[in-house]
Recover the amino acids of this structure.
């Protein structure tokens, strides 16, 4: 019994040394290839195999526009990697782009509407529909109270400086278009700015 | 130029950017060029990873860029190292400027036309002799009142601007350049920038050596060039160099703006900006002659060059926005458009907000309490709002200002006294919505919706669309004329799914444009009309959705290894899918490539058209030998010759000297930053006389020579943390890699002040104080300026108090100021105080 | 919200001070004028929400637009416009702060 155990240990040590990747790496095998293989790695499968959906993404950080492939399962992202087809990044990503999944799945993410009433000391969760209606009402009221249709001498300005909008460079062209169209073309807001100037 | 085109460069100067760290994937093309033999140069105050990978690092004091670049211009001219055939043919180097023109040499550090009472310039003496030149840049037209002097621009149709091809005329641009940069000698460059002259000369020679018919060079810059009181002029200095060297519109040549957000280019083109309508049409101004559409078009449309087409783009935009309501009889609803009265860009509006002018504010994916200068001032303004809507995906400093702000922490404000009603609306992120984004080289790429956003998170498209629907309903019964615009606005986009998500592609189809009668897509902006028959939300994007079912931004066919390398099948680059603007300049005046090695497009005599490796940026069938018939008073493109590549300019020439459009001078001139410890060694003028300075309580500038603020202070980003910071500060991996804020201090300064590596320090300015740990490093070195040591310290501005990676907000130290042309703030060269230790309990103003 | 005893008169005085400096811009006076005008507007809005008509509010908003244009001009300072706005404001102040 003891002998068998001893033999077992010996075999296991030998097996471990055989499987252990560091000696093979020290012996010159590539860390990117066979030297990374181990008994554990034999059982590993790429997580993207579990995906039921893949789509093209563009890295959401700087303006280089690296292509990404986003893999999802049951509507939840499980993997993000560089798109090897893209002539911009040819599959590569920087630390921010490579961490995109961590942004999508960040525990700090907030999924509910929060509202802070005037002078209140806390946030309160609110239904989205309630917030949308209240924001629409507040927007209308602020516009109506600050609108200048004409200067007193009759020159038409059709604007309000009592409403502002900041942001846009992190968003899609279609989103920016509708913001400028509604806020500028519809409500007469001029104070519309984004990160492009700063 | 396309990002990948950098690989075709023979010399790349990265300046005003830490490209290897902040745009690392684009930097691959710089490395590729280097492997092919290119010389890579980094001009920067700090030694960064970009410097480490460069062949040469030229250190310069923050804010001395124009002295350095001006030195290069002088070197090229005095040593006759410029590309004469290119510059003579394609730039205004031979143009003759008005007699009354004087530069800083003759005029005490100022240009002619300066009014000391108002602190502004008149442009009359900067014009081509006998002409009035319209600015091609709408942003600048919005800012100038020259546009109301209508009629003068017609002088451009009477004949070409006067030139002296022998370059002898004392007021030709060549001679003006010589005089202007005469004092930017290598000795002076060293005195102003602190860069040893032999290093400076190596940079100048590398650029000159790698330019000409067979070779091209490129500049790469980021906000290290724009965030100055003279930001536009720094970039202008590079355009002069590139014009002189022939590095425009050619493979591997150009000036690459490395911008910071995924669609910052898209949000400039289709602007969420105050002064432009989509794709660079000026927002009308009530103080200009803009009362009717006819007035607006008459004064804003340059008679010559491509911009003569402007009326088609304006009318098509009005049709896209106001649909059936827009008729010829009502000026296509032009009166609906809000008219400007003043500068409403971010900095002025921050000041106006603090004065109580703004009652309701939307903040959409931006975080001004970290990203905007003078954070305490911004915070005070937020507390004056009646309501604030923040859309983001995790808590931001801005949304939480009322309970975690610095003013609350210091006891200057109490949460219970802040009246602002605040909403936080969770936003869907990339991968959770579809749409298009435009990268820094105008490449518009579509992205897919792959997964669901959690809970009540919605796309910004959803938010703005449903807000618009509710508002249209609220205004539906109004009889007020003022409510006409919201009632008339077209707002019919298909909705999908349980959440009634609007269809992003439908919006892109409207941006592209369609025929009003049939609803069919317009394939090209050349087919847009000014008669109301076409609608188009952004003329430069026309062609992105040329026919039903064909979204070109979706196309994903890169060139193979043996392909031309322009990747015309990968996404869409505006305009017309061309990858290099002004690529007509890649061929000589006769239409032949300057060299086989640097060919891009050329004239095909057999086909009688332009052809090549890119989509030609020219009238396809316009012969190189075409010359305008001036006897007919030609307009539009008829007024440009077949060898005038710069079609957006009124005479088709690149402007080394800018007659119209700049508020601070026709040529870049070194002035010190608005805050500097150094007296301007070049002129008696300390700072540019046109800088926008808004000193008031809470926004004072550190005076020159104030012993409390002896150091140059600069800010920057980190590879791992992005801008306003929240997305990357809540990402576990990136937050772990850069867990805490720090200030970089040279060993010399640390020794002088007794600061230890990782010890606490306090940084101060008249705007506020912050505490942060020191990173004592040789990456930062003192400069020898005008005979004395000038210390510089630097700090990343990406930290805040939310998320996992936290630390002091560097922008607390900065002042609200503006570049004369753009109102962009200064973040790269201000002054500060520094001491070891921590803030005392009564932290706050010094 | 700012509470001043007579913000309308204070705004007028600030605007007069700014106009007296022509052609030089007086940033501090224009800042004061803006802040006071906002205070006047806050008061008028509060009254309007309590049920009073807001004809004057439109005029006040126009004054704010022009004063802000003087403080943050695009190109030259619009002095003539500022003077005109001063006249509108004087009418208005007479009514709201007699």
């Amino acid at each position: 019994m003891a002998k068998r155990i001893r033999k077992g240990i010996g075999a296991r040590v030998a097996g471990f040394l055989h499987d252990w990747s560091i000696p093979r790496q020290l012996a010159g095998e590539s860390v990117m290839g066979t030297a990374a293989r181990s008994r554990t790695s034999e059982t590993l499968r790429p997580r993207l195999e579990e995906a039921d959906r893949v789509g093209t993404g563009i890295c959401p950080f700087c303006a280089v526009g690296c292509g990404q492939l986003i893999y999802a399962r049951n509507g939840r992202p499980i993997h993000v990697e560089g798109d090897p087809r893209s002539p911009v990044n040819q599959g590569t990503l920087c630390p921010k782009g490579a961490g995109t999944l961590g942004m999508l799945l960040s525990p700090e993410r907030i999924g509910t509407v929060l509202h802070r009433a005037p002078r209140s000391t806390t946030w309160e969760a609110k239904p989205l529909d309630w917030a949308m209606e209240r924001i629409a009402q507040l927007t209308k009221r602020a516009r109506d109270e600050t609108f200048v249709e004409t200067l007193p001498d009759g020159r038409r300005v059709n604007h309000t400086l009592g409403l502002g909008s900041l942001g846009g460079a992190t968003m899609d062209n279609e989103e920016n278009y509708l913001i400028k169209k509604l806020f500028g073309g519809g409500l007469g807001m001029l104070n519309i700015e984004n990160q492009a100037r700063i | 130029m396309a990002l990948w085109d950098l690989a075709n460069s023979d010399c790349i100067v990265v300046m005003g950017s830490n490209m290897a760290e902040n745009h690392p994937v684009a930097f691959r093309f710089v490395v590729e060029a280097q492997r092919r033999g290119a010389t890579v140069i980094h001009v920067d105050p700090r030694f960064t990873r970009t410097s480490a990978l460069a062949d040469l690092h030229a250190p310069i004091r923050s804010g001395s860029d124009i002295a350095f670049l001006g030195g290069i211009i002088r070197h090229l001219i005095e040593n006759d190292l410029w590309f004469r055939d290119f510059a003579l043919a394609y730039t205004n180097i031979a143009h003759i400027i008005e007699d009354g023109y004087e530069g800083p040499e003759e005029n005490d550090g100022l240009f002619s036309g300066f009014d000391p009472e108002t602190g502004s310039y008149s442009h009359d003496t900067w014009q081509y002799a006998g002409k009035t030149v319209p600015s091609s840049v709408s942003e600048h037209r919005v800012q100038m009142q020259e546009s109301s002097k209508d009629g003068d621009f017609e002088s451009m149709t009477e004949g070409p601007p006067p030139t002296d091809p022998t370059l002898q005329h004392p007021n030709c641009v060549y001679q003006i350049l010589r005089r202007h940069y005469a004092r930017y000698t290598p000795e002076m460059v060293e005195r102003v920038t602190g860069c040893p002259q032999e290093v400076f000369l190596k940079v100048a020679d590398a650029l000159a050596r790698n330019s000409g018919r067979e070779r091209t060079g490129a500049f790469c810059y980021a906000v290290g060039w724009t965030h100055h009181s003279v930001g536009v002029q720094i970039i202008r200095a590079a355009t002069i160099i590139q014009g002189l060297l022939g590095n425009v519109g050619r493979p591997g040549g150009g000036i690459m703006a490395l911008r910071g957000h995924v669609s910052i280019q898209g949000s400039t083109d289709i602007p969420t900006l105050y002064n432009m309508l989509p794709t660079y049409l000026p927002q009308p101004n009530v103080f200009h002659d803009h009362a009717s559409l006819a007035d607006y078009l008459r004064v804003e449309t340059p008679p010559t060059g491509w911009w003569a087409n402007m009326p088609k783009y304006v009318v098509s935009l009005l049709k896209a926005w106001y649909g059936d309501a827009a008729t010829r009889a009502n000026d296509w609803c032009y009166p609906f458009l809000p008219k400007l009265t003043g500068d409403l860009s971010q900095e002025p509006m921050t000041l106006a907000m603090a004065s109580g002018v703004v009652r309701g504010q939307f903040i959409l994916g931006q975080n001004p309490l970290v990203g905007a200068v003078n954070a305490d001032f911004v915070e005070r303004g937020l507390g004056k709002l009646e309501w604030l809507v923040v859309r983001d995906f995790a808590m931001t400093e801005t949304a939480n200002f009322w309970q975690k702000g610095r003013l609350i922490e210091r006891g200057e404000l109490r949460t219970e006294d802040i009246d602002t009603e605040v909403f936080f609306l969770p936003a869907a992120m990339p991968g959770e919505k579809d749409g298009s984004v435009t990268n820094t080289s105008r490449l518009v790429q579509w992205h897919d919706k792959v997964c669901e956003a959690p809970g009540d998170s919605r796309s910004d498209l959803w938010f703005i669309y449903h807000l618009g629907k509710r508002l249209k309903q609220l205004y539906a019964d109004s009889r007020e004329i003022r409510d006409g615009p919201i009632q008339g606005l077209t707002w019919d986009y298909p909705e999908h799914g349980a959440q009634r998500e609007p269809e992003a592609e439908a919006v892109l189809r409207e941006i592209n444009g369609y025929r009003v009668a049939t609803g069919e897509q317009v394939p090209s902006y050349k087919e847009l009309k000014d008669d109301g028959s076409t609608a188009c939300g952004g003329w430069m994007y026309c062609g992105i959705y040329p026919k039903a079912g064909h979204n070109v931004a979706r196309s994903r066919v890169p060139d193979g290894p043996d392909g031309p390398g322009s990747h015309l099948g990968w996404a869409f680059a505006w305009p017309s899918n061309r990858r290099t603007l002004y690529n007509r300049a890649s061929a000589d005046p006769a239409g032949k490539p300057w060299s086989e090695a640097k060919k891009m497009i050329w004239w095909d005599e057999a086909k009688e058209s332009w052809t090549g490796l890119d989509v030609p940026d020219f009238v396809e069938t316009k012969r190189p030998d075409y010359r305008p018939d001036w006897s007919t008073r030609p307009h539009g493109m008829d007024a440009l010759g077949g060898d005038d590549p710069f079609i957006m300019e009124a005479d088709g020439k690149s402007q080394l000297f800018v007659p119209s459009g700049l508020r601070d001078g026709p040529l870049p001139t070194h002035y010190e930053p608005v805050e500097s410890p150094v007296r301007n060694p070049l002129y008696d003028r300390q700072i540019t006389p046109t800088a926008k300075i808004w000193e008031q309580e809470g926004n004072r500038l550190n005076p020159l020579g104030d012993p409390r603020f002896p150091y140059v202070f600069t800010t920057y980003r980190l590879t791992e943390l992005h801008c306003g910071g929240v997305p990357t500060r809540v990402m576990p991996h990136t937050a772990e890699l850069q867990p805490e804020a720090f200030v970089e201090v040279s060993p010399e300064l640390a020794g002088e002040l007794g600061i230890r590596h990782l010890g606490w320090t306090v940084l101060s300015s008249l705007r506020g104080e912050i505490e942060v740990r020191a990173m004592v490093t040789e990456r930062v070195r003192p400069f020898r300026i005008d005979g004395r040591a000038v210390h510089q310290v630097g700090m990343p501005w990406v930290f805040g108090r939310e998320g996992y990676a936290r630390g002091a907000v560097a922008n607390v130290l900065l002042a609200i100021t503006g570049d004369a042309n753009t109102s962009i703030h200064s973040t790269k060269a201000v002054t500060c105080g520094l001491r070891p230790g921590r803030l005392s309990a009564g932290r706050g103003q010094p | 919200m700012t509470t001043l005893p007579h913000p309308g008169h204070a705004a007028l005085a600030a605007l007069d001070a700014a106009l007296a400096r022509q052609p030089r811009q007086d940033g501090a006076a224009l800042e004061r004028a803006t802040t006071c005008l906002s205070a006047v507007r806050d008061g008028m809005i509060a009254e309007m929400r309590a049920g009073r008509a807001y004809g004057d509010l439109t005029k006040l908003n126009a004054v704010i637009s022009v004063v802000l244009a003087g403080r943050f001009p695009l190109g030259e300072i619009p002095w003539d416009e500022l003077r005109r706005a001063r006249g509108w404001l004087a009418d208005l102040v007479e009514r709201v702060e007699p």
Q: What stands out?
A: Residues 90 and 653 of chain B are 5 Å apart (CA to CA). Chain B touches chain A through 160 residues (CB under 8 Å).
